[in-house]
Amino acid sequence: xxxxxxxxxxxxxxxxxxxxxxxxxxxxxxxxxxxxxxxxxxxxxxxxxxxxxxxxxxxxxxxxxxxxxxxxxxxxxxxxxxxxxxxxxxxxxxxxxxxxxxxxxxxxxxxxxxxxxxxxxxxxxxxxxxxxxxxxxxxxxxxxxxxxxxxxxxxxxxxxxxxxxxxxxxxxxxxxxxxxxxxxxxxxxxxxxxxxxxxxxxxxxxxxxxxxxx
Length: 214
Ligand code: 13P
Known about the structure:
single chain; 214 residues; alpha+beta; L-fuculose-1-phosphate Aldolase; eight-stranded mixed sheet; 8 helices; 40% helix; 15% strand; globular; binds 1,3-dihydroxyacetonephosphate
C-alpha cells in the first residue's frame, strides 16, 4: 500500500490517521507509536511525539534493517515493530496504542493469557483473527520484549502487552488502524459484559469468518 501511494502520501495518511486516533482518546499525551513499511525501509513515529500533532517531514525513516536514516529520533519501541514485521511477512503497518479499554483488559489479574478478549462480534474476528495472545509485562522500551513479541506474533496479527496496551499489525496502514479500533471496541464490549452470561461466537462461526475473510 505505502509503496503504491508514494512516501509523501503515506506520511500524510499517517499524520491524518494518528490525529484521528488521538482525537478520539485512543492515545493520550505522547503514548503510542505507529510504523509503516515502505518499499525500501520503514516510517515510524518519533519518540515522545503526540499522535495528535505529528509533522509529516519529521517522521523517522528507517532502513530495511531498522537503522535510523533521517527524521526525528525514532520511537523507543522500534524493536516491537521489528518483531511484528519479522514474524509476519504480510504486515505493512503496526499500530501500538494505550487505548483505555484494551489496556484495562491487559491489567486484569484473571485475564486469560491465550484469549483475553472473547470472540463476541464478527468484526473483531475479521480484523484481529481468532488469537490475541497476552504478552507478559516488560518495561516500555525494554528490548527483552522483542523475543516474546516475535514468538507471540508468529501466530497472531495482534497482541496485548500486559499492563501496557495493544499492538496490532495489518497489510496496510488503514487496515492496521481499523484493526486497532475494532480491538478497542471489542475490549469495551468485553468489559461491559463482564460477569454477564454473554453469548460468544461459536468455533464454527469463527471458522466461517476466517474462511470467508481470511
Ligand atoms: P515512544 O514515544 O518512544 O514511541 O513510546 C511511546 C509508548 O507508547 C511507549 O509504550
